[in-house]
Amino acid sequence: MDQREERILIETERFQLTGTVRLPVDGYRSRLTDHLNAGEREFIALTDVDIVPLDGGELTRRGFVALNRRHIVFATSLTAAGDESAA
C-alpha cells in the first residue's frame, strides 16, 4: 500500500505534540479524521515528534511516540491541502 507522511499538531490536556503520521495516499483511511476515528486502534503512531508542555516547560524531541487516542483534545494537519511538501 502506498503511504504518505503528514505533519500534524495534536494537543492533549497537558502537552502539544507536533509529529508525522503515515496515511494511505488515497482511499480507505487516507484522511487524518479517518485515522483518529479508527475504532480498532487505541494508539496513534507518530514519528519525529516535538513535545511541549502546555504549562510552558522545555521542548522534548522523540523519534517515536505512541499516543493513546482518548487523550487527544485537538488535532489538525499542518500540511496544506493538496501540498505534500508543506510543513
Task: Name the features.
87 residues; SH3 type barrels; 5 strands; 5-stranded antiparallel β-sheet; mainly beta; single chain; disordered C terminus; globular
Question: What does the model show?
Answer:
With 87 residues, this protein is mainly beta. It has a single domain (3-77), classed as Roll (SH3 type barrels). It is built from one helix and five strands; from the N terminus they run E-E-H-E-E-E. The protein has one helix spanning 32-36, and strands at residues 3-11, 15-24, 43-53, 60-68, 74-77. A five-stranded antiparallel beta sheet has the order 4-3-2-1-5. The radius of gyration is 13 Å and the shape is globular.
Q: Which class of secondary structure composition applies to the elements? A: mainly beta
CATH class: Mainly Beta
The CA-CA distance between the termini, in Å, is: 24 Å
| Topology pattern, helix = H, strand = E | EEHEEE
> What would you call the shape?
globular
Total strand count, please? 5
Report low-confidence residues grouped into runs of 5 or more.
Answer: 82-87
Strand content: over 45%
Q: What spatial order of strands do you see in the largest sheet?
A: 4-3-2-1-5
The total number of structural domains is: 1
Number of alpha- plus pi-helical segments? 1
Question: How would you summarize this macromolecular structure in one to three sentences?
Answer:
With 87 residues, this protein is mainly beta. The protein has 1 helix and 5 strands. It has a 5-stranded antiparallel β-sheet.
Strand-helix topology:
Blueprint: E1 3-11, E2 15-24, H1 32-36, E3 43-53, E4 60-68, E5 74-77
